[in-house]
Amino acid sequence: MENLAETFLKLDRKEITLLKAIERGMRHCEWVPAEDLMTKARLSPKAVSGGLSKLVDKKLVFKTKEPYEGYQIGFAAYDLVALSDLVDRDVVVSLGALLGVGKESVVYEALGRIHVAESTEMGATGTAEEVTEATEEKLPLAVKFHRQGRTSFKHVRRVRDHLTDMPRCAWIHAARLGAAKEFRTLKHLFPEVSVPRPVALSHHTVVMEHTGGKELYKLDLENPEECLEIIFEEVAATWKKETVHADLSPYNVLIREDGEIAIIDWPQAVSRTHPQALELLERDLKNVVNHFQRKYRLDFDLEEALAFVLGEEKTGEKERVTGERERGSS
Question: pTM (2 decimals)?
Fold first, then answer.
C-alpha cells in the first residue's frame, strides 16, 4: 500500500465495518461466506453488497465464487483494521512515513497522545493546597505491522514456538500471534532491558515508543569496544529476565546519538527454559561478535562473552553448552 494513512481516511465507516467483519470471520474459515457478513457487520443486504463491491474494486477485499461466494482480506486491509482500532482507542493520532520494511514486518512512525499529571501548590488560603492538572503531550511512536506467514506460513510455523500447536492457523493470524508474543516480551523486559516501551497491541500490530537511532550495521562507531560491552550488558540483563532474543544481529540493535542502545524485533524470543535457549543465546552473541571482528578488527572471544552474559551461572551453563556441542558433533 503506497499510503496507509491516505487510504484509511478515504474509507467510510461501513467499509471499515465490513473489513472488521471479514477479519473476524477469517478466524474460522479461509473464505467468509457472504451471508455471514450480514450478521457479523449488522448491515442490510444492500449495504453489504455495495460495500463489498467497492472494497473489491479497491483491491482491499478478494472474492471467490467457488465452492460458494466468499470473501477474504490480505495484509493491506488487515493493517487498516488495526489502524482503525488504534485510532478509535486514541492510541494513534497521526501516522507518518515508513520507518522500515522487512520480510516479517512493516514499521511506520506515528504520534500518540499521553496525559501527564502536574502538581502545583496553592497558598492563597495560607495553607499548602495541592492541585493536580492534566496536560497533554505528543508521544513519538513506532507502529509495527507484523507480516509472519506472508511468504511461507509452513516455514514460519516451524520456527515459531507460539505456532507449533496450531497446524490450521491461517497465515493472517500467524502475524496476530507473533505481534501478541512480541508485545508480551516487551512488557516483560521493559524497563530492565533497553527495549522500546510497549504502548498498545491491536490485532497483528505492536505500538511502541519510537526510540530513534540507527541500525548498528549502518554506523561507523568511534568507540566500538564500548558499544560491544553495552550490548553484552543488555543481553545479560535479558538473560536475567529469563529470556533470549534468538534473532540478535547488527540489524536490530539501534544506536542513538547519545550512545544509548535499544534492541528491537522480539517475535522470535524464547524463554530460558526452551531446550535450545543456550544454543540460541550463543548464536546471538556470535552474530554480534562477528560483526565487530569484521568491521572493527576487535579480537573478542565468544566464550568470554558467553561467560559474561551467564554471570554467576557460567560454570555450570558453559559445561552444558560444551556437552551439547560435543554430543551434536558425535
Answer: 0.84
